[in-house]
Amino acid sequence: MVWSQLERLRPIFENIDATPIHSFADTINPFQLALDVVLLVFVLYVLNRKSYKPEKPLSKEEIEQLIAEWEPVPLHPKLTPEQELDSKTPVITGTTPTHVTIDGIEGEVLHLARTNFLGTIGHPKVEESARNAVYKYGTGTCGPRGFYGTIDVHLELEERIKNFMRSEDAIIYSYGFATVSSAIPSFSGRGDILVVDKGVSYALQTGIKLSRSDVFWFEHNDMADLERVLKEIKDTDRRTKRKLTRRFIVIEGLYPSYGDITPLNEIMKLKEQYCYRIIMDESFSIGTLGKTGRGVTEHFNVPVRSVEIITGDLASTVGSVGGFCLGSTAIIYHQRLNGPGYVYSASLPALLTRAATTGFDMLDEQPQLVDRLRNNTAALHKGLSAIDGMRVVSWAQSPVVLLTLDESTGTRLGDETLLQAIVDKALESKVLLTRAKFVAVQEKFLAPPAIRIFSSAVFTDEHIRTALKVIKAAADEVLPKRDASQKKQKSRRQSSVTETAKEAEEFLSSSKTTGERKRRSTRKD
């Protein structure tokens, strides 16, 4: 009976069109099907597995033992031997333009470890202007510049810096480190290109990292290597048909880690040839280089407006706090809207702003400060070069003097330990020095170990003689004795360095003269 009923349904099933079923079967991807099956099995396994349960509950004694044996993971890694060298920091309790008092040391200590290039720290004019600002404006602003934190003294300082540097416009920041580290990512982002000197300091490296740009490094102050990098980028552009993006050469006017200056005249030629813009930090060159202290651009007779972005540090230039950026009106206005260090930081307190303005007034009214700084730098350079077992590696006119070991111990830690011993020994004789210090874990390229000495326009001849005597005595006591042949080699090497310095000075002078002639001929035309 059932069979007869199925026979009646046969015509119905025979008339059903099976084409859609076959088409669906043909479209199934076997790999996708296998993946779906594996995922299904994994989900079923997770849903059905039993949670972990110990075979038997722990006793109270076992719990107490586990707690006693548990050691938490430290919040910070153990200090490295290099970091332990910096664990003891002198605490300053008082200051004058040339000396400080330090907790635990009787009497005044000659300070060669700060950037008081022009003697603005402790100057009566600067202190008086800061006191007057405190009486009028109080100690702080409690707001960013764009949110009711702008005071008239901020605008006055920006105008003062702009006029002094003969720039189109200027902007000030509340913190020197944040100036260049904000300016770089404000103008360079993903897909843009930064060609960077390997000798730039940590503040610039931070800005470069924050920009997320494509970064190409060239050897420190090596113009041949810079041109090689620029050529390679150009060749890659042609080969890959890369679209045009914003491109910058990133340099420093005076490199504090090496004590030398950038060859700006040569970089300007490469900039024009390969169509790049320049970002240059002049934290250590404005106020110290050039006939009137206007920095590397004045030193090389390069118009300041031909460098697109110039940044500086008020702490190094005029002994205050904060930073500044120079550029066209459009560049400055862009930072007022997009510079993180400007938009999100409380504005510079009025007392520090007035102190910085007074410092620029002093620099403008007393250009002889730069001459005195240069003379003191030359005296320090000459005296330090004569110390047995050590050598000066910085440029002869650099107010940042770097003193290194004549012969390395073979390891960085060994060199740093010897240099720190010299620093400690000098402090015992009332002279404060410092090693060149770096954020070793985060900095991309480390400069060689050195003692970093800062010159100042307010040092007297007696101050310099005292410093040289103490440093020489400390080096003689710490460093191993050397024989006569090694001393002769140092003397010959020193003569070679002196000749090289003279040749460099002649080259720089000829470069400046050539640039001046070109500008004169251009003006005549």
Give an account of the 3D structure.
This protein has 525 residues and is α/β, with parallel strands linked by helices. The chain has helices at 2-14, 19-27, 30-48, 60-69, 81-84, 124-137, 145-149, 152-165, 176-187, 202-211, 223-240, 264-274, 296-299, 314-318, 329-338, 340-343, 350-365, 368-385, 412-428, 461-478, 484-524; strands spanning 92-95, 99-102, 109-111, 169-173, 193-197, 214-218, 247-252, 254-255, 260-261, 277-281, 309-313, 323-327, 390-392, 400-405, 431-432, 434-435, 451-454. The strands form 4 sheets. It has a 7-stranded mixed beta sheet, with helices on both faces. The chain is globular. Mean pLDDT is 88; it is low at 511-515 and 517-525.
Keywords:
525 residues, alpha/beta, seven-stranded mixed sheet, four-stranded mixed sheet
Q: Please tally the β strands and state the result.
A: 17
- Tell me the number of helical segments per DSSP (H or I, 4 or more residues long): 21
- From the N-terminal CA to the C-terminal CA, the straight-line distance is 118 Å
Major sheet: arrangement of strands:
4-12-11-10-7-5-6
- Decide which structural class fits the backbone: alpha/beta
Based on Cα principal axes, name the global outline: globular
Largest sheet: number of strands, sense, barrel closure: 7 strands, mixed
Mean pLDDT: 88
DSSP helix fraction: 40-55%
Rg of Cα set: 33 Å
Uncertain runs with pLDDT below 50, 5 residues or more?
A: 511-515, 517-525
Query: What is the strand content?
Result: 5-15%
